[in-house]
Write a structure and sequence with these properties.
Strand order of the largest sheet: 1-2-3
Shape: globular
Strand content: 15-25%
Oligomer: single chain
Mean pLDDT: 74
Order of helices and strands: EHHHHEEHEE
Number of helices: 5
Number of strands: 5
Length: 154
Amino acid sequence: MISASTLCASLNVKSITSACSAADFASVAMSAMGLIPTAPRPFAPRAKGRPITLETVGDLATVFKMSQTATAIRLVTYGSFPAMLIYYEQGRRKWFLRPSNDIPASLWPKEQLDPYSVSANLLANSFANSKAGDTRSDRWFERENATKYYVRES
């Protein structure tokens, strides 16, 4: 079960925000990348074709007995779709992971979580409305012409 203090939400250039401290990131990342054994079965085949959503993170975390943060890192790294993982604490970006070469290196997430994003709404409403939604990409990324594009948060 996800607590109000933990949020994993995804975008179609999929961004997952998740509560874990920056100090814990290294150990979580090592675990997620398989440097620390976490499960007897391979992760990538179980993640193949699965959407990057709260439900998928929860399902895979249960199967592999991993934290949701470690699972989210693995899902954006080994999943079938280009994705980013972005961690915000008190509305400010602390770190992000962009493992896919399909996402341009010039695409940087904003320093502050936009209060009108689906993720901000999920945090404010304790996941009462955890439905997917399209939002303008300028709510997530500082890039010229970003208002012309949309991302899906789910």
